[in-house]
Structures are given as C-alpha cells and as structure tokens.
Amino acid sequence: MQLAIHDGMFMRTAERRIRARQVRHQMELSLQFGFGMMEHSKRLVADNGGGLVILSPRDLDDEQLERLSRSLNKLEGGQVVLDPQFYLPYADHFRLCEHEYWPQEFSSGGFFGGPGQTSLLRSLKVLNDRLGTSMFIVPAELSLGVDDDWVAVQSSMLDEARNIEKDKPVIQTIALNEEATRNSDGIGLILDAAEKNTAGGYYIVAEHPRGDYLVADPSWIANILDLCAGLKLLGATVTIGYSNHQLLCAGAAKVDYIASGTWMNVRSFPPEKFKQQVEDEVRQRATWFYCPRSLSEYKIPFLVVAQRTGVLQHMKPEPPCLPEIEALFSGTFALSEQASFRHYLT
Predict the structure, then answer these.
(1) Which of 74, 86, 261, 282 is the most buried if burial means most Cβ atoms within 10 Å?
(2) CB-count burial class (<10 Å; 0-12, 13-18, 19+) for 211
(3) SS3 for 181?
(4) Confidence class of residue 1 from pLDDT cuts 50, 70 and 90?
(5) Which residues pair with 54 in a beta bridge?
C-alpha cells in the first residue's frame, strides 16, 4: 500500500514537473507569535508592507488577542490567523486554558464527533470573527501515531468546521509528534486521506526529535518535504508552523508559508510548552547573530574570532541591514536581543 501511494505521488509530480519549472514560486514568512512579540509583529509587518501573524492563545489573553489583531489588521497588508493550540487537550497552561473556547472537561472517548467538538468549533468561530482572522485554523490533537482512527477524527473535525465556517478558507491542522513524523507509512496515509477529502489549506506542526533545535535526522526532514509536496499537488496552501532556517528548503516543495518567531520555542515545536511551567522570560538566554550566507547562528564571541582571522566581512548579510547589524561589521560587537530577533526574521 505504501509503495503504491508513493509511486502515485511520484507520477503526479513527474506530470507537473515541466509546468512547475515555468511557475515562479516564492515562499513567504509568517510570524509565529510567542512571548514578547507584540511590538516585533507590528514593526515587522509595517516594515515589510504586509505579513501574516499566527496568534498564540498560550501567550496572549483575550483582551491582548483582540487589541493586537486590531492593530495588525489596520496595517497595510496585515493579516492574522488564530492557532487554537489544542495539541494537548489535557494541557494545564493557565493562560491557554482560560480562553472561553477551551473545554472545561475533556474525555477522549466522547469528545471528538460529539457535542464537545461542536462547542469547541462554534466558540472558535465566534473568536475568529471577533479577531478578524483571514482563515479558520481547525484545531487538532497532537498525533502520537497516524492510523485509521486518527484519520477519522481529522475528517470529522474538518467536515464540521466547514459546516460552521462558511466565509473563510478552512485550514486543517496536522500535528505530529517526532515518531509520527519519522513514519513514512503514516505520511502516506495522511496523503491518501487528504486526496479523498482535501482541505483548502494545511497547517503542519511537527515535534523535533529529542527536542533538538536543528534536526539531524534526514528521515524527519524528508518526510516533512514529502508531506508538503503531496499536499501541494492537491492544490492546497501549505504552512509549516514553528520553523527555523533549516526549513527554508521547504521552498523546493512549493510550500506557501513557513512560520517563525523570536525564541527557540517558536522556531521548533515543543509540546511541553502548553503545560504549566516556569515562563520563558526567567530562563537563561544568549544573544545570537544569524548569518544568511552560512545558514547558521553565532554567539558574539565567535564574531570576534572571525574578525581576528580575517573572515568577518564574508559573514556580512546583503543590505539593507539594521543599524546594529551594520555596527557588528565595523568592530562594535554589541547586539541587543531585540535587534537579533528582528534581523533573524528579516
């Protein structure tokens, strides 16, 4: 079965290859909202003449969601969507669980396909309309393994979301833990199900193996690209959430958006962030410089070494650069956290 699915995908890819070469495709960056990103989001959308921000109920209360959405929607080309972050239905993060759409009680046996699912989707519809979102992201539980039961739940959520949301594109979430992402049979099953019941778009979030920031497992990356390419062949838009620069290669699979943010927990997908824990701002952190030419990040002391060995100028990004980035290459080795984040996302 798996061989047949992938052979079929290969044939469809080959049939469109000539046309695909003639089509100009540009993958865009969305902002994956995380802690402390309100001003970053407004500044980056304004500076770039537009952009899509994926809102995080885990990091914003109801009033903040509405206020930020209003500000972003007023900017030229500004758009917002809401990630329901229903990955762990038993999550206990205080800010996430205080939102009105979050179920007060959850039982896996009777929730999906029942009144709990309907109530969740209707509440999300009300919230999306109030925030002025451009698309409706369907909630999804993190998959520990893709099987027929998982496919049935996904289909049920998608079908009911379509019945409730008639005005906006309905985007299906595909949330996979590290083992599910590594399993090529499961990827084939997802594509087979999507071919029978295609959503208008897909929002893919995938847990990194061992919680690593940069993934060293080639099967994980290959399966992500395989999944994205297969979904694009169905004519849907595809967004990869919680991305870092390693997934710039997704442009080769014609992905429409990758979403990234400031801290590492919005540049990768750690499910534990949706559980109650000490907030990110009290953790030890370092400032990094992102070098586009090498697709790598460096702490400031390494730039000092680069200057001493005469290679610093080779690391300079193409203009225009933020003033603090320009200063790095004139020997002023000071970089603020704010400038580091904005440079990375730019």
Answers:
(1) 261
(2) middle
(3) helix
(4) very low
(5) 32, 81
